[in-house]
TrEMBL record, chain A:
Naturally occurring in which organism (per UniProt): Glycomyces luteolus
Topology term for the membrane: Multi-pass membrane protein
A molecular function (GO) term: transmembrane transporter activity
Protein name: Urea ABC transporter permease subunit UrtB
Regions crossing the membrane: 6-27, 60-82, 145-162, 196-216, 228-250, 262-280
Gene Ontology BP annotations: amino acid transport
Keyword Transmembrane listed: yes
Keywords on record: Amino-acid transport, Cell membrane, Membrane, Transmembrane, Transmembrane helix, Transport
Protein family per UniProt: Belongs to the binding-protein-dependent transport system permease family. LivHM subfamily.
UniProtKB/TrEMBL annotation, chain B:
Keywords: Amino-acid transport, ATP-binding, Nucleotide-binding, Transport
Coiled-coil stretches: none
Family: Belongs to the ABC transporter superfamily.
Domain ABC transporter: 2-229
Name used for this protein in its record: Urea ABC transporter ATP-binding subunit UrtE
Biological source species: Glycomyces luteolus
InterPro entries: AAA+_ATPase, ABC_transporter-like_ATP-bd, ABC_transptr_urea_ATP-bd_UrtE, BCAA_Transport_ATP-bd_LivF, P-loop_NTPase
Signal peptide (from-to): none
Source domain of life: Bacteria
One Pfam short name: ABC_tran
Length: 294, 229
Protein backbone atom coordinates (compact mmCIF):
# COMPACT_ATOMS: atom_id res chain seq x y z
CA UNK A 1 0.00 0.00 0.00
CA UNK A 2 2.80 2.37 0.94
CA UNK A 3 4.57 1.43 -2.24
CA UNK A 4 1.45 2.05 -4.30
CA UNK A 5 0.76 5.48 -2.78
CA UNK A 6 4.42 6.37 -3.12
CA UNK A 7 4.52 5.37 -6.77
CA UNK A 8 1.24 7.07 -7.56
CA UNK A 9 2.49 10.27 -6.04
CA UNK A 10 5.80 9.93 -7.87
CA UNK A 11 3.76 9.50 -11.04
CA UNK A 12 1.72 12.60 -10.31
CA UNK A 13 4.87 14.51 -9.53
CA UNK A 14 6.71 13.35 -12.66
CA UNK A 15 3.55 14.18 -14.56
CA UNK A 16 3.45 17.70 -13.16
CA UNK A 17 7.06 18.28 -14.22
CA UNK A 18 6.26 16.95 -17.70
CA UNK A 19 3.19 19.16 -17.77
CA UNK A 20 5.12 22.29 -16.84
CA UNK A 21 7.66 21.53 -19.56
CA UNK A 22 4.91 20.76 -22.10
CA UNK A 23 2.38 23.49 -21.30
CA UNK A 24 4.20 26.20 -23.23
CA UNK A 25 4.73 23.78 -26.08
CA UNK A 26 1.02 23.01 -26.20
CA UNK A 27 0.57 26.68 -27.10
CA UNK A 28 3.43 27.11 -29.58
CA UNK A 29 3.29 23.64 -31.13
CA UNK A 30 -0.20 22.46 -30.26
CA UNK A 31 -2.02 25.68 -31.07
CA UNK A 32 0.24 27.42 -33.57
CA UNK A 33 1.83 24.33 -35.15
CA UNK A 34 5.39 25.64 -34.80
CA UNK A 35 7.89 22.87 -34.15
CA UNK A 36 10.21 24.75 -31.84
CA UNK A 37 13.23 22.57 -31.06
CA UNK A 38 14.68 25.41 -28.97
CA UNK A 39 11.84 25.07 -26.44
CA UNK A 40 14.14 22.98 -24.26
CA UNK A 41 16.72 25.75 -24.28
CA UNK A 42 14.05 28.21 -23.08
CA UNK A 43 13.57 25.82 -20.14
CA UNK A 44 17.34 25.85 -19.64
CA UNK A 45 17.29 29.66 -19.74
CA UNK A 46 14.71 29.53 -16.94
CA UNK A 47 17.04 27.29 -14.91
CA UNK A 48 19.93 29.73 -15.29
CA UNK A 49 17.60 32.63 -14.49
CA UNK A 50 16.96 30.97 -11.14
CA UNK A 51 20.71 30.45 -10.67
CA UNK A 52 21.65 34.05 -11.53
CA UNK A 53 18.83 35.46 -9.40
CA UNK A 54 20.11 33.48 -6.45
CA UNK A 55 23.66 34.73 -7.01
CA UNK A 56 22.35 38.28 -6.93
CA UNK A 57 19.71 38.07 -4.22
CA UNK A 58 21.26 35.52 -1.88
CA UNK A 59 18.20 34.47 0.11
CA UNK A 60 16.91 31.26 -1.50
CA UNK A 61 13.23 31.89 -0.71
CA UNK A 62 13.14 35.46 -2.00
CA UNK A 63 15.17 34.58 -5.07
CA UNK A 64 12.74 31.78 -5.99
CA UNK A 65 9.80 34.19 -5.80
CA UNK A 66 11.66 36.71 -7.95
CA UNK A 67 12.97 34.07 -10.36
CA UNK A 68 9.51 32.68 -11.26
CA UNK A 69 8.20 35.87 -12.94
CA UNK A 70 11.68 36.77 -14.19
CA UNK A 71 12.00 33.33 -15.76
CA UNK A 72 8.69 33.92 -17.52
CA UNK A 73 9.95 37.22 -18.92
CA UNK A 74 13.35 35.80 -19.93
CA UNK A 75 11.82 32.79 -21.69
CA UNK A 76 9.13 34.98 -23.23
CA UNK A 77 11.61 37.55 -24.51
CA UNK A 78 13.77 34.83 -26.07
CA UNK A 79 10.70 33.34 -27.72
CA UNK A 80 9.58 36.72 -28.99
CA UNK A 81 12.98 37.38 -30.55
CA UNK A 82 13.04 33.92 -32.15
CA UNK A 83 9.52 34.36 -33.50
CA UNK A 84 10.13 37.83 -34.90
CA UNK A 85 13.52 37.17 -36.43
CA UNK A 86 13.15 33.64 -37.75
CA UNK A 87 9.96 31.67 -37.24
CA UNK A 88 7.67 34.38 -38.66
CA UNK A 89 9.38 33.98 -42.02
CA UNK A 90 9.03 30.21 -41.97
CA UNK A 91 5.30 29.64 -41.37
CA UNK A 92 4.02 26.83 -43.60
CA UNK A 93 7.59 25.45 -43.79
CA UNK A 94 7.64 23.03 -40.83
CA UNK A 95 10.81 21.20 -41.83
CA UNK A 96 12.78 24.44 -42.15
CA UNK A 97 11.36 25.63 -38.84
CA UNK A 98 12.47 22.39 -37.18
CA UNK A 99 16.03 22.68 -38.53
CA UNK A 100 16.39 26.39 -37.79
CA UNK A 101 15.10 26.13 -34.23
CA UNK A 102 17.26 23.04 -33.64
CA UNK A 103 20.25 25.15 -34.70
CA UNK A 104 19.17 27.98 -32.44
CA UNK A 105 18.93 25.46 -29.59
CA UNK A 106 22.52 24.34 -30.17
CA UNK A 107 23.70 27.94 -30.28
CA UNK A 108 21.93 28.68 -27.00
CA UNK A 109 23.50 25.61 -25.36
CA UNK A 110 26.94 26.82 -26.42
CA UNK A 111 26.20 30.32 -25.15
CA UNK A 112 25.25 28.81 -21.79
CA UNK A 113 28.45 26.77 -21.79
CA UNK A 114 30.53 29.91 -22.51
CA UNK A 115 28.81 32.03 -19.91
CA UNK A 116 28.23 29.56 -17.07
CA UNK A 117 30.72 26.78 -17.89
CA UNK A 118 30.03 23.19 -18.86
CA UNK A 119 29.77 21.69 -15.33
CA UNK A 120 26.35 21.66 -13.76
CA UNK A 121 25.49 24.37 -11.26
CA UNK A 122 23.17 24.07 -8.29
CA UNK A 123 20.45 26.32 -6.98
CA UNK A 124 19.92 26.19 -3.23
CA UNK A 125 16.46 25.01 -2.28
CA UNK A 126 14.75 27.49 0.10
CA UNK A 127 14.37 26.45 3.74
CA UNK A 128 10.57 26.22 3.55
CA UNK A 129 10.76 23.66 0.73
CA UNK A 130 13.29 21.36 2.40
CA UNK A 131 12.28 18.03 3.86
CA UNK A 132 9.07 16.17 3.30
CA UNK A 133 5.46 15.89 4.29
CA UNK A 134 3.90 12.67 5.49
CA UNK A 135 1.14 11.64 3.10
CA UNK A 136 -0.68 8.38 3.93
CA UNK A 137 2.49 6.98 5.45
CA UNK A 138 4.76 8.04 2.60
CA UNK A 139 7.29 10.87 2.89
CA UNK A 140 6.67 13.25 0.02
CA UNK A 141 9.33 15.91 -0.71
CA UNK A 142 8.01 19.45 -0.36
CA UNK A 143 9.74 20.52 -3.57
CA UNK A 144 7.64 18.01 -5.48
CA UNK A 145 4.45 19.33 -3.87
CA UNK A 146 5.51 22.86 -4.81
CA UNK A 147 6.02 21.85 -8.45
CA UNK A 148 2.66 20.11 -8.47
CA UNK A 149 1.01 23.28 -7.14
CA UNK A 150 2.89 25.41 -9.65
CA UNK A 151 1.78 23.15 -12.52
CA UNK A 152 -1.85 23.40 -11.38
CA UNK A 153 -1.55 27.19 -11.11
CA UNK A 154 0.04 27.47 -14.56
CA UNK A 155 -2.64 25.33 -16.20
CA UNK A 156 -5.36 27.33 -14.46
CA UNK A 157 -3.80 30.63 -15.55
CA UNK A 158 -3.44 29.54 -19.19
CA UNK A 159 -6.97 28.15 -19.27
CA UNK A 160 -8.46 31.32 -17.78
CA UNK A 161 -6.53 33.59 -20.14
CA UNK A 162 -7.54 31.56 -23.20
CA UNK A 163 -11.16 31.26 -22.22
CA UNK A 164 -12.08 34.57 -20.65
CA UNK A 165 -9.87 37.38 -21.90
CA UNK A 166 -10.02 39.27 -25.21
CA UNK A 167 -6.41 38.25 -25.90
CA UNK A 168 -7.36 34.60 -25.31
CA UNK A 169 -10.29 34.90 -27.72
CA UNK A 170 -7.98 36.36 -30.34
CA UNK A 171 -5.47 33.53 -29.87
CA UNK A 172 -8.19 30.92 -30.29
CA UNK A 173 -9.58 32.75 -33.32
CA UNK A 174 -6.22 32.94 -35.11
CA UNK A 175 -5.48 29.30 -34.30
CA UNK A 176 -8.90 28.25 -35.57
CA UNK A 177 -8.92 30.19 -38.83
CA UNK A 178 -6.09 32.56 -39.63
CA UNK A 179 -7.60 34.15 -42.77
CA UNK A 180 -10.97 34.65 -41.16
CA UNK A 181 -9.32 36.26 -38.12
CA UNK A 182 -7.46 38.68 -40.38
CA UNK A 183 -10.68 39.66 -42.11
CA UNK A 184 -12.31 40.10 -38.71
CA UNK A 185 -9.77 42.86 -38.07
CA UNK A 186 -7.35 40.83 -35.93
CA UNK A 187 -3.65 41.20 -36.64
CA UNK A 188 -2.55 37.58 -36.81
CA UNK A 189 1.10 38.67 -36.64
CA UNK A 190 0.60 40.40 -33.31
CA UNK A 191 -1.35 37.42 -31.99
CA UNK A 192 1.34 34.97 -33.14
CA UNK A 193 4.01 37.00 -31.39
CA UNK A 194 1.93 37.21 -28.21
CA UNK A 195 1.16 33.48 -28.19
CA UNK A 196 4.79 32.65 -28.70
CA UNK A 197 5.76 34.99 -25.87
CA UNK A 198 3.40 33.25 -23.44
CA UNK A 199 4.40 29.73 -24.57
CA UNK A 200 8.10 30.45 -24.27
CA UNK A 201 7.59 32.27 -20.98
CA UNK A 202 5.97 29.13 -19.56
CA UNK A 203 9.11 27.20 -20.56
CA UNK A 204 11.09 29.72 -18.51
CA UNK A 205 8.83 29.15 -15.49
CA UNK A 206 9.26 25.39 -15.91
CA UNK A 207 13.04 25.91 -15.91
CA UNK A 208 12.95 27.85 -12.65
CA UNK A 209 10.89 25.09 -11.03
CA UNK A 210 13.20 22.34 -12.27
CA UNK A 211 16.16 23.81 -10.37
CA UNK A 212 14.40 22.68 -7.19
CA UNK A 213 14.78 19.00 -8.07
CA UNK A 214 17.99 18.82 -10.07
CA UNK A 215 21.21 20.45 -11.14
CA UNK A 216 21.35 22.86 -14.08
CA UNK A 217 23.61 22.31 -17.05
CA UNK A 218 23.56 23.62 -20.64
CA UNK A 219 21.78 20.44 -21.77
CA UNK A 220 19.16 20.40 -19.01
CA UNK A 221 16.39 21.60 -21.30
CA UNK A 222 17.15 19.19 -24.10
CA UNK A 223 16.36 16.21 -21.91
CA UNK A 224 12.79 17.46 -21.42
CA UNK A 225 12.11 18.33 -25.05
CA UNK A 226 11.14 14.90 -26.39
CA UNK A 227 8.91 14.21 -23.39
CA UNK A 228 7.22 17.58 -23.84
CA UNK A 229 6.46 16.87 -27.52
CA UNK A 230 5.11 13.43 -26.58
CA UNK A 231 2.75 14.95 -24.03
CA UNK A 232 1.37 17.43 -26.57
CA UNK A 233 0.92 14.84 -29.33
CA UNK A 234 -0.59 12.18 -27.08
CA UNK A 235 -2.93 14.71 -25.49
CA UNK A 236 -4.29 15.88 -28.83
CA UNK A 237 -2.88 18.91 -30.59
CA UNK A 238 -3.77 22.17 -28.96
CA UNK A 239 -5.87 20.73 -26.17
CA UNK A 240 -4.68 21.87 -22.74
CA UNK A 241 -6.97 19.30 -21.14
CA UNK A 242 -5.28 16.60 -23.23
CA UNK A 243 -1.83 17.75 -22.19
CA UNK A 244 -2.83 17.52 -18.52
CA UNK A 245 -4.22 14.00 -18.82
CA UNK A 246 -1.34 12.81 -21.02
CA UNK A 247 1.31 14.24 -18.69
CA UNK A 248 -0.19 12.56 -15.63
CA UNK A 249 -0.68 9.28 -17.50
CA UNK A 250 2.88 9.26 -18.82
CA UNK A 251 4.26 10.21 -15.41
CA UNK A 252 2.33 7.39 -13.77
CA UNK A 253 3.36 4.82 -16.38
CA UNK A 254 6.95 5.90 -15.93
CA UNK A 255 6.74 5.58 -12.13
CA UNK A 256 5.02 2.19 -12.24
CA UNK A 257 7.43 0.78 -14.83
CA UNK A 258 10.34 2.06 -12.75
CA UNK A 259 9.09 0.10 -9.73
CA UNK A 260 9.48 -3.15 -11.61
CA UNK A 261 12.53 -2.37 -13.74
CA UNK A 262 15.11 0.38 -14.24
CA UNK A 263 14.68 4.00 -15.30
CA UNK A 264 15.93 3.29 -18.83
CA UNK A 265 13.63 0.29 -19.28
CA UNK A 266 10.76 2.36 -17.93
CA UNK A 267 11.45 4.95 -20.61
CA UNK A 268 11.30 2.21 -23.24
CA UNK A 269 8.02 1.04 -21.73
CA UNK A 270 6.56 4.54 -21.94
CA UNK A 271 7.59 4.87 -25.59
CA UNK A 272 5.97 1.52 -26.39
CA UNK A 273 2.75 2.63 -24.71
CA UNK A 274 2.74 5.87 -26.71
CA UNK A 275 3.48 4.13 -30.01
CA UNK A 276 0.67 1.65 -29.45
CA UNK A 277 -1.68 4.42 -28.28
CA UNK A 278 -1.02 6.61 -31.31
CA UNK A 279 -1.57 3.64 -33.62
CA UNK A 280 -5.02 3.22 -32.14
CA UNK A 281 -5.80 6.92 -31.77
CA UNK A 282 -3.56 9.06 -33.97
CA UNK A 283 -5.46 12.25 -33.18
CA UNK A 284 -4.54 12.02 -29.49
CA UNK A 285 -6.77 11.89 -26.44
CA UNK A 286 -9.00 14.87 -27.15
CA UNK A 287 -10.10 16.38 -30.43
CA UNK A 288 -12.36 19.20 -31.52
CA UNK A 289 -15.61 18.33 -33.23
CA UNK A 290 -17.45 20.78 -35.48
CA UNK A 291 -19.96 20.74 -38.30
CA UNK A 292 -18.32 23.37 -40.46
CA UNK A 293 -15.38 22.80 -42.73
CA UNK A 294 -13.48 25.76 -41.38
CA UNK B 1 -15.68 54.08 -52.58
CA UNK B 2 -14.02 50.96 -54.00
CA UNK B 3 -12.38 51.02 -57.39
CA UNK B 4 -10.42 48.22 -59.05
CA UNK B 5 -8.26 49.27 -61.96
CA UNK B 6 -6.93 46.67 -64.34
CA UNK B 7 -6.63 44.23 -61.44
CA UNK B 8 -4.73 41.00 -61.99
CA UNK B 9 -4.34 38.63 -59.07
CA UNK B 10 -3.96 34.96 -58.30
CA UNK B 11 -2.08 32.32 -56.39
CA UNK B 12 1.68 31.91 -56.66
CA UNK B 13 2.61 32.80 -60.22
CA UNK B 14 -0.63 31.84 -61.89
CA UNK B 15 -3.11 34.65 -62.35
CA UNK B 16 -6.78 33.79 -61.85
CA UNK B 17 -8.27 37.23 -62.39
CA UNK B 18 -7.04 39.21 -65.40
CA UNK B 19 -7.29 42.98 -65.80
CA UNK B 20 -10.63 43.56 -64.08
CA UNK B 21 -12.04 47.09 -63.72
CA UNK B 22 -14.86 47.44 -61.27
CA UNK B 23 -16.42 50.10 -59.11
CA UNK B 24 -18.64 50.20 -56.05
CA UNK B 25 -19.93 53.71 -55.40
CA UNK B 26 -21.10 55.07 -52.07
CA UNK B 27 -24.50 53.59 -51.06
CA UNK B 28 -24.37 51.25 -54.02
CA UNK B 29 -24.68 47.50 -54.46
CA UNK B 30 -22.52 45.92 -57.13
CA UNK B 31 -23.12 42.27 -58.00
CA UNK B 32 -20.44 40.01 -59.42
CA UNK B 33 -21.69 36.95 -61.24
CA UNK B 34 -20.18 34.10 -63.19
CA UNK B 35 -19.87 30.34 -63.24
CA UNK B 36 -17.86 28.30 -60.79
CA UNK B 37 -14.17 28.90 -61.37
CA UNK B 38 -14.73 32.27 -63.07
CA UNK B 39 -12.58 34.00 -60.45
CA UNK B 40 -15.29 35.66 -58.32
CA UNK B 41 -14.00 34.46 -54.96
CA UNK B 42 -10.37 35.16 -55.88
CA UNK B 43 -11.38 38.71 -56.84
CA UNK B 44 -13.05 39.26 -53.47
CA UNK B 45 -10.13 37.73 -51.58
CA UNK B 46 -7.79 40.15 -53.36
CA UNK B 47 -10.00 43.08 -52.40
CA UNK B 48 -9.91 42.13 -48.71
CA UNK B 49 -6.19 41.33 -48.78
CA UNK B 50 -6.03 37.55 -48.64
CA UNK B 51 -4.75 37.14 -52.20
CA UNK B 52 -1.80 39.23 -53.43
CA UNK B 53 -2.27 41.72 -56.26
CA UNK B 54 -0.03 40.96 -59.25
CA UNK B 55 -0.72 44.16 -61.15
CA UNK B 56 -3.27 46.96 -61.23
CA UNK B 57 -4.61 48.78 -58.19
CA UNK B 58 -7.26 48.46 -55.52
CA UNK B 59 -8.42 51.88 -54.34
CA UNK B 60 -10.50 52.34 -51.23
CA UNK B 61 -11.66 55.90 -50.55
CA UNK B 62 -9.25 57.08 -53.23
CA UNK B 63 -6.24 55.48 -51.54
CA UNK B 64 -4.33 52.57 -53.13
CA UNK B 65 -4.40 49.70 -50.61
CA UNK B 66 -2.65 46.97 -52.63
CA UNK B 67 -0.19 46.17 -49.86
CA UNK B 68 -2.27 46.92 -46.80
CA UNK B 69 -2.67 43.84 -44.54
CA UNK B 70 -6.18 42.40 -44.37
CA UNK B 71 -6.76 43.36 -40.74
CA UNK B 72 -6.00 47.02 -41.48
CA UNK B 73 -8.41 47.04 -44.41
CA UNK B 74 -11.08 45.97 -41.96
CA UNK B 75 -10.21 48.85 -39.68
CA UNK B 76 -10.36 51.17 -42.68
CA UNK B 77 -14.02 50.20 -43.16
CA UNK B 78 -14.26 46.97 -45.15
CA UNK B 79 -15.99 43.87 -43.89
CA UNK B 80 -15.91 40.47 -45.53
CA UNK B 81 -18.28 37.54 -45.23
CA UNK B 82 -16.52 34.64 -46.95
CA UNK B 83 -18.10 31.73 -48.76
CA UNK B 84 -19.24 28.69 -46.85
CA UNK B 85 -20.70 30.22 -43.66
CA UNK B 86 -17.28 30.44 -42.06
CA UNK B 87 -17.08 31.10 -38.37
CA UNK B 88 -14.62 30.42 -35.59
CA UNK B 89 -15.93 26.91 -35.14
CA UNK B 90 -14.62 26.12 -31.68
CA UNK B 91 -15.58 29.47 -30.16
CA UNK B 92 -19.14 29.97 -28.96
CA UNK B 93 -21.45 32.09 -31.10
CA UNK B 94 -21.24 34.83 -28.46
CA UNK B 95 -17.44 34.72 -28.50
CA UNK B 96 -17.50 35.01 -32.30
CA UNK B 97 -19.28 38.33 -31.89
CA UNK B 98 -17.41 39.60 -28.83
CA UNK B 99 -14.12 38.86 -30.57
CA UNK B 100 -14.74 41.62 -33.07
CA UNK B 101 -16.43 43.91 -30.57
CA UNK B 102 -13.42 43.74 -28.19
CA UNK B 103 -11.60 47.03 -28.02
CA UNK B 104 -14.32 48.98 -29.83
CA UNK B 105 -16.15 51.82 -28.20
CA UNK B 106 -19.63 50.67 -27.14
CA UNK B 107 -18.80 47.15 -28.30
CA UNK B 108 -21.70 45.73 -26.31
CA UNK B 109 -24.19 48.00 -28.07
CA UNK B 110 -22.80 46.95 -31.44
CA UNK B 111 -23.33 43.29 -30.58
CA UNK B 112 -26.85 44.04 -29.34
CA UNK B 113 -27.74 45.88 -32.54
CA UNK B 114 -26.80 42.82 -34.60
CA UNK B 115 -28.71 40.50 -32.30
CA UNK B 116 -31.75 42.68 -32.97
CA UNK B 117 -31.15 42.24 -36.68
CA UNK B 118 -30.81 38.45 -36.34
CA UNK B 119 -32.94 37.59 -33.30
CA UNK B 120 -32.46 33.85 -33.92
CA UNK B 121 -28.88 34.21 -32.68
CA UNK B 122 -29.91 35.42 -29.24
CA UNK B 123 -30.73 31.98 -27.94
CA UNK B 124 -27.57 30.44 -29.40
CA UNK B 125 -24.88 32.64 -27.90
CA UNK B 126 -23.46 30.00 -25.58
CA UNK B 127 -23.46 27.27 -28.27
CA UNK B 128 -20.24 26.28 -30.00
CA UNK B 129 -20.41 28.02 -33.38
CA UNK B 130 -19.21 24.94 -35.27
CA UNK B 131 -22.31 23.07 -34.13
CA UNK B 132 -24.82 25.59 -35.51
CA UNK B 133 -26.71 24.98 -38.76
CA UNK B 134 -25.54 26.56 -42.02
CA UNK B 135 -28.18 29.30 -41.90
CA UNK B 136 -27.38 30.16 -38.30
CA UNK B 137 -23.68 30.29 -39.05
CA UNK B 138 -24.26 32.58 -42.01
CA UNK B 139 -26.32 34.96 -39.86
CA UNK B 140 -23.51 34.84 -37.32
CA UNK B 141 -20.95 35.61 -40.04
CA UNK B 142 -22.92 38.62 -41.31
CA UNK B 143 -23.49 39.88 -37.76
CA UNK B 144 -19.77 39.52 -37.06
CA UNK B 145 -18.91 41.52 -40.16
CA UNK B 146 -21.39 44.29 -39.30
CA UNK B 147 -20.03 44.74 -35.77
CA UNK B 148 -16.89 46.21 -37.33
CA UNK B 149 -19.14 49.10 -38.54
CA UNK B 150 -18.11 48.80 -42.17
CA UNK B 151 -18.85 51.24 -44.97
CA UNK B 152 -18.31 48.51 -47.54
CA UNK B 153 -19.70 45.02 -46.99
CA UNK B 154 -18.25 42.26 -49.16
CA UNK B 155 -20.38 39.12 -49.38
CA UNK B 156 -19.38 35.88 -51.11
CA UNK B 157 -22.44 33.81 -52.02
CA UNK B 158 -24.31 34.59 -48.82
CA UNK B 159 -27.26 32.30 -49.56
CA UNK B 160 -25.45 29.31 -51.04
CA UNK B 161 -26.34 26.03 -49.38
CA UNK B 162 -28.80 27.50 -46.91
CA UNK B 163 -32.34 26.31 -46.22
CA UNK B 164 -34.93 28.38 -48.16
CA UNK B 165 -36.71 30.04 -45.22
CA UNK B 166 -33.42 31.47 -43.94
CA UNK B 167 -32.41 32.57 -47.46
CA UNK B 168 -35.32 35.03 -47.50
CA UNK B 169 -34.23 36.40 -44.12
CA UNK B 170 -30.64 36.90 -45.23
CA UNK B 171 -31.68 38.48 -48.54
CA UNK B 172 -33.99 40.80 -46.64
CA UNK B 173 -31.17 41.84 -44.33
CA UNK B 174 -28.88 42.61 -47.29
CA UNK B 175 -31.53 44.73 -49.01
CA UNK B 176 -32.18 46.60 -45.72
CA UNK B 177 -28.48 47.26 -45.25
CA UNK B 178 -28.12 48.61 -48.77
CA UNK B 179 -31.14 50.87 -48.26
CA UNK B 180 -29.56 52.03 -45.02
CA UNK B 181 -26.63 53.47 -46.97
CA UNK B 182 -24.09 50.64 -46.81
CA UNK B 183 -22.10 49.92 -49.95
CA UNK B 184 -22.12 46.25 -50.89
CA UNK B 185 -19.98 44.12 -53.17
CA UNK B 186 -21.95 40.93 -53.67
CA UNK B 187 -20.99 37.68 -55.35
CA UNK B 188 -24.17 35.79 -56.10
CA UNK B 189 -25.12 32.87 -58.34
CA UNK B 190 -28.83 33.52 -57.95
CA UNK B 191 -29.52 36.01 -60.77
CA UNK B 192 -32.96 37.11 -59.62
CA UNK B 193 -31.80 38.29 -56.23
CA UNK B 194 -28.50 39.71 -57.47
CA UNK B 195 -30.13 41.95 -60.05
CA UNK B 196 -32.94 42.97 -57.71
CA UNK B 197 -30.52 44.06 -54.97
CA UNK B 198 -27.78 45.53 -57.16
CA UNK B 199 -27.54 48.76 -59.10
CA UNK B 200 -24.60 47.52 -61.17
CA UNK B 201 -23.43 44.13 -62.27
CA UNK B 202 -20.25 42.53 -63.56
CA UNK B 203 -20.10 39.10 -65.13
CA UNK B 204 -16.78 37.29 -65.01
CA UNK B 205 -15.79 34.52 -67.39
CA UNK B 206 -12.40 32.79 -67.03
CA UNK B 207 -11.17 35.63 -64.85
CA UNK B 208 -12.05 38.39 -67.33
CA UNK B 209 -14.96 40.80 -67.48
CA UNK B 210 -17.52 39.34 -69.90
CA UNK B 211 -20.20 41.95 -69.35
CA UNK B 212 -20.71 44.96 -67.14
CA UNK B 213 -23.48 47.50 -66.73
CA UNK B 214 -26.38 49.01 -64.83
CA UNK B 215 -28.91 46.64 -63.33
CA UNK B 216 -31.94 48.05 -65.09
CA UNK B 217 -34.17 46.78 -67.87
CA UNK B 218 -32.47 44.32 -70.15
CA UNK B 219 -29.83 43.46 -67.56
CA UNK B 220 -31.15 39.95 -67.07
CA UNK B 221 -30.79 39.21 -70.79
CA UNK B 222 -27.28 40.65 -70.90
CA UNK B 223 -26.18 38.62 -67.88
CA UNK B 224 -27.73 35.43 -69.27
CA UNK B 225 -26.01 35.99 -72.58
CA UNK B 226 -22.63 36.70 -70.94
CA UNK B 227 -22.94 33.58 -68.82
CA UNK B 228 -24.20 31.65 -71.84
CA UNK B 229 -27.28 30.23 -70.13
Amino acid sequence: MDLLVGQLFTGLSTGSILLLAALGLSLTYGQMGVINMAHGEFIMAGCYTAYVTQQVVGDAGVSLLIALPTGFLVGGAMGLILETLLIRHLYHRPLDTLLVTFGVGLVLQQVARDVFGAPAVNVTVPQFLRGGVDLLGTAVPKTRLFILALAIAAVAAVTLVLRFTPAGRRIRAVVGNRDLAETAGISSRAVDAGTFFIGSGLAGVAGVALTLIGATSPTTGQSYLVDAFLVVVAGGMGRIKGAVVAAIALGTFQAVFETYSTASLAKVGVFVVIVVFLQLRPQGLFTLRTRSLA
Amino acid sequence: MLRLRNLTCGYGRSAVVHGVDLEVGADEVTAVMGHNGAGKTTLLRAVVGLVPVMSGTIEFDGEAINRKPANRRVRAGMAYVPQGQQCFAHLTAGENLRLVADGRKSGRALVDAQLDRFPALRGLLSRQAGLLSGGQRQQLAIARALITEPRLLILDEPTEGIQPNVVAEIEGAIVDLAKGGLSVLLVEQHLGFALQAASRFTVLRSGRVASQGEAGSGAVERVREAMAI
